[in-house]
Amino acid sequence: MKQLRESKGLVLRQVAAVLNVDTAYVCKMEKNDKPVSKTYLAKLASLYEVDLKMLQTLWLADKVYDVVKDEEMAIKAMQVAELEIINNSK
Q1: pTM score, two decimals?
Q2: Which phi and psi (to 5°) does residue 78 adopt?
């Protein structure tokens, strides 16, 4: 998030104003100290001029990672989940 913001030449207070939050929240989001709320993704995609689906994918991947990162069977569980998603989407 910080790289996206900086690449657009924006400062924290500008992003905070768009999201209607304080600058501390944006700073914590950028440092991964606070999760990005899904409700902000569309605004952030527009502000940073990036594809919303890409941003949603990264957001969801972060959520999944947070759940499995400390699990010994994380890779295997992800593979099983992938198969379930594939099988249930048919």
Answers
A1: 0.79
A2: -65, -40
CA dist., res. 50 & res. 28, Å (int): 21
- Which of 82, 66, 11, 10 shows the shortest CA–CA distance to 33? 66
**Which tokens hold the place of 89?**
């989407």
* Domain at 2-64: CATH architecture: Orthogonal Bundle (1.10)
pLDDT in tens, 1-18: 899 999 999 999 999 999
Tell me the C-alpha distance between 87 and 77, whole Å: 15
Closest CA to 39 of 29, 49, 31: 29
State the Cα–Cα distance between residues 87 and 72, nearest whole angstrom: 25
pLDDT (tens digit, 9 = 90+) per residue, 17-76? 999 999 999 999 999 899 899 999 999 999 999 999 999 999 999 899 989 999 999 999
